[in-house]
Design a protein that fits this description.
The structure is a homodimer. The first copy, chain A, is α+β, with helices and mostly antiparallel strands. Chain A is about 35% helix and about 20% strand. In chain A, the strands form two sheets. In chain A, strands 4-3-5 form a three-stranded mixed beta sheet. A two-stranded antiparallel ribbon of chain A has the order 1-2. The longest helix of chain A is centred in the middle third of the chain and has 13 residues. The first copy, chain A, is flat. Chain A binds a DNA duplex through helix 1 and helix 3.
Chain lengths: ~130, ~130
DNA sequence: ATACATGCAAATCATTTGCGCAGTC
DNA sequence: GACTGCGCAAATGATTTGCATGTAT
């Protein structure tokens, strides 16, 4: 018995490629539509299955901004996001992660900190201009 | 036509009371079970409807830790969380919110920052002891 | 009396899964 | 050939909604 995702598949490679080439933070549905343009018979279930495999392999990251659905990201390095509360668009922020955060917070936490997640919310310039 | 949530209701008051009296960050289902002990005929739909009303009134807060379901919190002041990746328990952290964060980050953001969300992930002491 | 709120059940939305066949190693 | 991956459709889980009836003001 082999581990999951040890064989290559056209579907998985294409899904990763599409994800890696966008700067948006797409949902499974969005990826499905894009990949479908090249592999018309692919199913949504396959997209979900492969997103899990890629995530387990550490090649992609799963995001959640409390919208009730998940988004995916091929940028796996730690980085922060800015979520526009008007249009919903999510942008990566070009800021170096706060190094000193864990040591500073650790004493106040009943456990061992492994990671943190930091998101900013507000209105993006595009939306501000539009009014 | 009146606004939503302008009339009092036994159900809504009880839901808020139960939520306000717990330090856990319960799901709608959990609240439903608790409230049901006192209002047996209440429906899950009513719980959801009232959680939305309370949220719109600013009396409670909706949380999301990427588990695929929502949690609720009667503590509306800005505060951070520590999520145990083993048992899933969410604890409030007693740390003053980072004041300097917005001004420091604002220059790097294509929009206006209104708020930020900061969560820590790791293993809680309870789980660490258990091994 | 009016219009918001409820209980119930059906609907919706995102995601997961069982199954038999296809593709990769 | 063995075992992973696929497409399809049905199942699941959380949340939402339509409707007739109940209830607060």
């Amino acid at each position: 018995m082999q581990a999951l995702g040890t064989k290559r598949s056209r579907q998985r490679e294409k899904i990763f490629q599409v994800l890696a080439r966008t700067t948006s933070h797409p949902t499974a549905e969005w990826l499905y539509e894009r990949v479908r343009e090249q592999i018309p018979r692919i199913s949504l279930g396959t997209v979900y299955r492969n997103l899990h495999i890629l995530k387990d392999q550490g090649k992609i990251r799963e995001l959640d901004f409390g919208e009730g659905l998940r988004r995916y990201d091929a940028t796996i390095e730690q980085h922060y996001h800015f979520v526009c509360e008007r249009c919903g668009r999510v942008r990566d922020l070009d800021i170096t992660p706060l190094e000193d955060l864990h040591p500073r917070v650790q004493p106040h936490v009943p456990g061992t900190i492994r990671a943190h997640k930091l998101d900013f919310y507000g209105i993006c310039t595009d939306c501000l201009v539009r009014e």
